[in-house]
Design brief:
6 helices, five-stranded antiparallel sheet, 391 residues, mainly beta
Amino acid sequence: LSSNGSSDPDGDSAALRYDWKLNGKSLSSDPNPQITLPDAGNHIIELTVTDAAGASTLAAVPVVAGNSPPVVSLASPLDGDFFTPGQPVKWRASVSDAEEGNSSSEPGGFGPRLLVSTSLDRGGVEPKGLSLMKSADCFNCHAPEHRIVGPAFLEIADKYRGQEGALNASVDRVQRGSTGVWGPVPMLPHGHHTREQITEMVQWVFSLKPGTDKPILQRGLEGEVVIPSDAASARAVRIEATFTDAGNTPAGPLSSRAVITLRNRRLEAELCDARNGTQSLAGNSASGKSFIGDTSHGQWIQFKSINPSKAARLTARFASGGHGGTIECRLGAPDGQLIGSFPVPNTGNWEAWQEASIPLPSSSSTADLFLVFSNQGKSGLLNLDWIQFDP
């Protein structure tokens, strides 16, 4: 157990006292003890930290002993592959579990419990409530936009939108169970979730609105999803496979997930995963109203997990009102394998954009892509708006 990160805002962290408890019983006063859980099952470990003046704060985490988490893998597509709006993507997954076996020998037992979610990444962070729901049983009975056993989540959001007190009342019904609200089929109580967790889930449901992005949900070990036609503006498509095992009595169930990210074929330069020494600059003539500029020799930008063999050509949109130079395309590192380069002349203006294409090798594999700006001893080289992997 670790108390690292505990501190006293008054500046007297050396005088902190630690009290670890297991299921409410004192366990240790060491800051970072090593323990062995005596019994299988679901446990709560609490840490109370008290300062010299007697002020204290408690943190708690659930721990499951006696059940191994499942292992989920997405065999295809591969992380970093490209998506095309309006076109289908076939996915295939597998599951293994120390207590239950694996999906290859018992697909009928594993497939219905594997939830595959496909969602558009427009640059935001997945809501915590949605993440919690994927690991729970919520999507067994509900879907975002159509009825299954219970009402669609959008139907729930529309009913309670703007109603004072609706959030707390709905959290109560989820936690304790209810019947007759949406028909004769009762909703079972969800006492295994904390009230905080249920509140996060219900807040996500209440946030849904018609016409907004919602995850596409499917079950099974393989399937096909059509990427929405309006996904051209999305940075990426996220495919996530979540499996919850059956537990190992008295230990409760555990969930695991595998996630891959499919890239848009057009990558805005300013949305790179990392950069060295360059700047993201605003420009109305750029496709995303921003571009990478202020480039000097040896500087670079990085895109993680790119497979160039999934495209035939690479196109770049660039401009230069200065020295110009070369954009080197390298795999793995700034000095890694060179798979192509773009000579960039002075185009007459810093936003006088030009496009050029180069062929890509078919033998390369998934790696980080580095775009290195080169012109020995020079600065103020060029601006880069985007690169695009053409099929």
